[in-house]
Amino acid sequence: MEILGIDIGGSGVKGAPVDTANGKMLTERFRIPTPKGARPKDVAEVVAAVARHFEWKGPIGAGFPAVIQRGVARTAANVDKKWIGTDAVELLSVATGCPVRVLNDADAAGTAEMRFGAGRDRDGVVFIITIGTGLGTAVFTDGVLVPNTELGHIEIDGEDAEFQASDAARKRDGLKWKQWAVRFDRYLNRLDALFWPDLFILGGGASGKMDKFRNVLTVDAEVVPAQLLNEAGIIGAAVAAEVLVKGF
Ligand code: BGC
User: What is the mean pLDDT of residues 199-206?
Assistant: First the structure.
């Protein structure tokens, strides 16, 4: 099935048509910078521009960096607060003229990794952690997603984990990968003690840098880099939108 996957991020809105049977993008991805402030109307215009670029008329799956319950955004950590309570499905369907499914961005990336990447054929409890502007989490038990986990926001020393251990935090504080990894390792150990996952898959910018910090990590659970790198969000959003066509 060919579905347009779109990954709405803190710095860019990226999209490409995806063959959901094999998880391959059918063209180069197309990217437009996220409009400043990431207000709903402005983001919708950019999503529509991505769809127009591909002259898209079919179903669209979009990953968005917030809790998405029944199509409605419930949080807005790194985007404009006007998103809270916004019906993202309606907004983006009207803007593009296409049927749209919207889900949390980390859930989208996790869906792709489980089907086509580092989580393929892995049962038990698997965590995908996307390390970017925020810390996104997707949790799977025997391959089934528990949607909208917001475990980037657990508190460590009274502070939001994301504030210390995201990639944005690494850049903000001018940390080397190993220095940042000390913080990230504390975060992984906390998750490990609370959820006892079998596998952590690390996605986002850090996934390509694991060689630089792998030996800093002390957590018991297995930790591997994501395999689909920065395409996971696009591919997973497209896969998640199969329900628009198949109706389940
Ligand atoms: C948001 C999550 C999102 C993550 C990654 C966090 O700040 O609360 O919903 O998945 O960033 O973008």
Answer: 93
